[in-house]
Specification:
The chain contains 13 helices and 20 strands. The chain is of the alpha/beta class. The strands form six sheets. A seven-stranded mixed beta sheet has the order 4-3-5-6-7-8-9, sandwiched between helices. Helix 1 packs across helix 7 and helix 10 crosses helix 11. It starts with 5 loop residues before the first helix and ends in a 5-residue tail after the last strand.
Length: about 450
């Protein structure tokens, strides 16, 4: 298993950011070949997958991989014979206070897809040191290195506080790691209405606020209108697209540094924004290939892709090589041929809605729906001030009545349990509503605002 000391990792990060484009591509190709040769020797799955690979292969010669392939061949995918699906699962299910490493060398985390089956991801020492250095020396550049240390600063996070959610598990482990400073950490559920969130933040007076873009932008409005009375030193967005407009709204409202990190469970830290809204692609360590709906390279680089292929050049234990992700992006090369390219991401921050007199964002509903068994796609339709209607597309073989009825009841219970007693959530088997102007099917539709 590959390892590296942190000092060397920092040196590599600093050097990579100053190379010319040509030098960086040469280094990227060298790292790709090293990774491929390693996995061919140590992963049964990749040994078979790369059986007919030419000696002088290029990136495009490598077969595309998918989440389904990883799930179906999990133990064979891993490069360490001491690791398998059962070992990783046992580690992930350990007590929340246990901060030990997996096999004394690795960390592991998990996410969930639309079927609710968790994707377990192991990260080795090499990946953790490299991506840790990326965070500290690119994302956090110019900030107090202790800004995220709860023994020094008060940190509030607005997230999905559900058991099993990776962000919430991370918060709980932070509490366990800093038992003497739990009073400096606060997790607020995105399920709570904005008035409750504002009150909790006003009482807590955080130095740092992290969360989803839609929640942060709503807080910026509360700040501008005088209801939110906090003066953080840092606003950090994660897990949701922050538009250029949203970035400037946060900066204008809070008058502090705003950072943004495009990361994923599989690929780690892909792109970062520090000192402006532009997301800089860490192409010396992560390869992003924009592809069309046929998984072919996008020919017109001025248009957004239908998906991307991700290659993490630093994870040697659970390799991510040309791994398909459905994010829509385009890459803009800098004119100076030295700066890292800009990664533009096509996405939306989740809309706001008001239910029974309380204001919410869509993020908690979408997070719940993402892991709801049998549900492929959800749409929330507001049919009255107090009532939401759930519509959806289910997987083949599923009973839509059972899937949508179960989710609507669960959501209504969540609202009631969190102080919104007047909320009603129903469901309908009617088809999803399309945007009258065309484009994507909206996540939220307010029928009260339509003619």
């Amino acid at each position: 298993m590959k390892t590296i000391d942190y000092k060397t990792a920092v040196k590599l990060i600093e050097e990579g950011g100053s190379l010319s484009k040509k030098e960086r591509m040469r280094l990227q190709n060298q790292r790709l070949h090293e990774l491929v040769e390693y996995v061919r020797l140590n992963s049964p799955y990749f040994k078979e997958l790369y059986r007919d690979l030419p000696e002088n292969f290029t990136l495009e010669d490598l077969p595309i991989t998918t989440k389904k392939a990883m799930q179906d061949n999990y133990s064979e995918w891993l490069t360490n014979p001491d690791l398998n699906k059962d070992v990783v699962r046992k580690y992930l299910d350990r007590d929340i206070s246990d901060n030990s490493l997996l096999l004394d060398k690795c960390t592991a985390l998990q996410t969930s897809g639309s079927t609710g089956e968790p994707l377990m991801m192991v990260r080795d020492d090499y990946h953790n040191k490299i991506h840790g250095a990326l965070v500290n020396h690119r994302l956090m550049r110019g900030l107090d290195p202790n800004i995220l240390n709860p023994s020094k600063y008060k940190i509030a996070t607005v997230i999905h506080t559900s058991p099993g959610a990776s962000s919430y598990n991370g918060y709980l482990r932070a509490l366990a790691a800093f038992p003497d400073y739990v009073q400096n950490m606060l997790a607020i559920s995105v399920l709570e209405d904005i008035d409750t969130i504002v009150k909790k933040l006003n009482d807590f007076q955080p130095d740092v606020v992290t969360g989803y873009a839609s929640s942060l932008i709503l807080l910026a409005k509360e700040k501008k209108e005088g209801r939110l009375n906090i003066n953080p030193k840092l606003i950090a967005n994660s897990a949701e697209l922050l538009s250029d407009k949203g970035y400037f709204e946060l900066e204008d409202a809070f008058r502090c540094k705003v950072i943004n990190n495009y990361c994923m469970t599989e690929g780690g830290e892909v792109a970062m924004a520090n000192g402006g809204p532009e997301m800089k692609l860490n192409e010396d360590w992560v390869i992003v290939e924009p592809v069309d709906k046929n998984l072919l390279p996008v020919k017109d680089r001025t248009k957004f892709s239908d998906g991307i292929l991700i290659t993490d050049l630093s994870n040697f234990v659970q390799p991510i090589i040309r791994y398909y992700v459905g994010d829509r992006v385009k890459i803009v090369e800098p004119q100076d041929h030295t700066s890292l390219p800009e990664l533009k991401i096509d996405g939306r921050t989740h809309p706001f809605f008001t239910l029974a007199g309380k204001k919410y964002t869509m993020v908690f509903i979408l997070t719940k729906a993402e892991v709801w068994p049998g549900l492929m796609k959800i749409q929330v339709v507001q049919i009255s001030p107090d009532t939401l209607e759930i519509r959806g597309v289910c997987f083949p073989g599923e009973n839509p009545n059972e899937v949508l009825d179960g989710l609507s009841k669960q959501l209504e219970k969540y609202f009631h349990d969190n102080g919104c007693k007047g909320a009603h959530v129903t469901y309908s088997l009617q088809p999803l509503l399309h945007n009258k102007k065309g484009g994507k099917i909206p996540e939220y539709v307010n029928l009260m605002n339509q003619d």
